[in-house]
Amino acid sequence: MIFGLIKLIIWLAGVVTIAYFALPHFGYRVNLDYWQERQVACKEKIEACQRDLIKTGIEGVKEKCDIRCVNPKSLIQKIEK
């Protein structure tokens, strides 16, 4: 069990490393600043949802809150020439 988990982690690290160095060859780059840029906006969304939860209850939050803060298309961007 533990050996399989370690093996999986090593494989994932290898794939991520290869992808990181191979993406520029195909005209893409990894946006390493994405997490810092989105952190403030995500905090504001979560705080707004907390206020809505207090005011309208769970049903109001389900209708109004969209907490999806990560946009996968913004993590890997096409290099503009």
Instruction: Please count the beta strands (DSSP E, at least 2 residues each).
Output: 2
Question: How is the main sheet built?
Answer: 2 strands, antiparallel
Order of helices and strands: HEHHE
Shape: flat
* Helix-residue proportion: 55-70%
Q: How many helices in DSSP terms? A: 3
Termini gap = 47 Å
User: How many domains?
Assistant: 2
List low-confidence stretches: none
Strand order, sheet with most strands: 1-2
Radius of gyration: 19 Å
| Structural category | mainly alpha
What is the percentage of strand-forming residues?
5-15%
Mean pLDDT level: 82
Question: How would you describe this protein?
Answer:
It is built from 3 helices and 2 strands. It has a two-stranded antiparallel sheet with strand order 1-2. By secondary structure, it is mainly α.
Structure summary:
By secondary structure, the chain is mainly α. The chain is built from 3 helices and 2 strands.
Topology, pairings included?
Layout: H1 2-22, E1 28-30, H2 34-64, H3 72-75, E2 76-78
Antiparallel strand pairs: 1-2
Can you give keywords for this protein?
single chain; 81 residues; 2 domains; 2 strands
